[in-house]
Amino acid sequence: MVPLWWYIVLGVVLFVIGAAGVLLRRNILVVLMSLELLLNSVNINFIAFGRYHADLRGQIFAIFVIAITAAEVAVALGILVALVRNKSTLRVDDVTVMKG
């Protein structure tokens, strides 16, 4: 059986990679993928701790996070399509203010 600390290390590594992608990259699509990586690292830790404590709450929280992530992706991609139609760019620096 794989020890718990392997899952924690995997979650931390994925979280650091995702945080670096959010903070350092300028493409909005890369930033969104990095946010997904952050949320997946949290899911790994939820499931690992739930299994360690023989409790289903970790899996339940992970399912809620996945549902919220799916909603976030749907809204974000809709905003990105509208943004590309209006501004023709996906750079974070070029899109500082969204005016209606």
UniProtKB/TrEMBL annotation:
GO terms for biological process: ATP synthesis coupled electron transport. The chain crosses the membrane at residues 6-24, 29-48, 60-84. It is an enzyme of class 7 (translocase). GO terms for cellular component: NADH dehydrogenase complex; plasma membrane. One of its GO terms (molecular function) is NADH dehydrogenase (quinone) (non-electrogenic) activity. NCBIfam families: PRK05715.1-2 (NF004320), PRK05715.1-3 (NF004321), PRK05715.1-5 (NF004323). This is NADH-quinone oxidoreductase subunit K. It comes from Rhizobium chutanense.
